[in-house]
Amino acid sequence: MANIVVACGSGVATSETVVSLIKGFFEDHNISGVNVEATDFKGLAGVLPNYDIYVWIAKPTKEIQDICDREGIVDVNGVNILTGNNSDDSYKKILWALQKMTM
What we know:
Elements: E1 2-8, H1 13-28, E2 34-40, H2 44-47, E3 53-56, H3 62-71, E4 74-77, H4 78-83, H5 87-102
Parallel strand pairs: 1-2, 1-3, 3-4
């Protein structure tokens, strides 16, 4: 099973909204086997290695980007999903990362 984490400042409103939008996208496209969760940014560094894809609301810090690079975690712009502007780009990157995992 693939694991996606969405992080915002508190892990509540914005990240939960993006989680819901991603789950809706997966349902609309008959994609299963993907766990999507929200977390707060303060605890992200400790849990990030447990995930395959990181959807960010605020651009990743150097520490978070280093973890992504070291662990092979794909980072995706979640602002696009939240606003609906260029959301196709973010969804395509998520799909690309999921396909890459199955190779």
